[in-house]
């Protein structure tokens, strides 16, 4: 059944498209694809195929390639069409535009030009991975693709090592083994993680365990498909008894017990109750 076109207000519409199963697309996304005056796609072949599956005719509407290698003039042209009163739909090859694709500069340019920007939410590899990883999702940092250069990649991992949030990475199947090995060194072997491969597709695979376990499991393994790596938050640092004593001595010399306990607990990432007991013990011995 062919979907009919309905008038769509002028503006730029970012449309999430399936990361695997074509039926994951939303009804709102189908309405926009059927009704937009102009379509911009990271991969025009993928967009055409998706529309054909769902019975959406392109007709005489322009389908413009817009990707990482597009000239700035292509972006400016899309913004110009939206500013002139047309509805412009932008779709990534898969997933939600703006996440590791050229959507961000397009959105920035549209906002600067006073063009209305809309989102048609839907499939997202990052969110799908968070659902199946089994790791905390109340605080999340999306890190995207790690740098290809070893030095830059190492600095990135060092910067993220102490972040108290679940980390989400996209990575090539050819490089996942190397990344896991480097994470064992930078983030620690005991961090919980999940390698999510081919999400929503026929050969979906979720591998869970510590970074050390996963590094061993993927060492020398030939891997195919799209990968999302989810890494659990940094483990609380366990202060040595000597560290706690030294920090309390220094803080109590200039602060009240209450303030000293608060400062040391924060600096050593320890429960206040534990630090308070240690402070009372030291005062009792004084």
Automatic annotation (TrEMBL):
Q: Which reaction does it catalyse?
A: cytidine(1402) in 16S rRNA + S-adenosyl-L-methionine = 2'-O-methylcytidine(1402) in 16S rRNA + S-adenosyl-L-homocysteine + H(+)
The record places domain RsmI HTH at 239-281
Ranges annotated as spanning the membrane:
none
Give the protein name, as stated in the record. Answer: Ribosomal RNA small subunit methyltransferase I
Q: Where do the Tetrapyrrole methylase domain residues begin and end?
A: 12-215
Family from the record: Belongs to the methyltransferase superfamily. RsmI family.
| Source organism of this protein record | Rhodovulum kholense
Q: Which GO terms describe its cellular component?
A: cytoplasm
Annotated function: Catalyzes the 2'-O-methylation of the ribose of cytidine 1402 (C1402) in 16S rRNA.
Top-level taxon in the UniProt lineage: Bacteria
Q: What class of enzyme is it?
A: transferase
User: Record's Pfam families?
Assistant: RsmI_C (PF23016), TP_methylase (PF00590)
Q: What is its main location?
A: cytoplasm
One example GO MF annotation: rRNA (cytosine-2'-O-)-methyltransferase activity
Its EC number is 2.1.1.198
Report which gene this protein is encoded by.
rsmI
Identify the keywords attached in UniProt to this record, alphabetized.
Cytoplasm, Methyltransferase, rRNA processing, S-adenosyl-L-methionine, Transferase
Cell compartment(s), UniProt: Cytoplasm
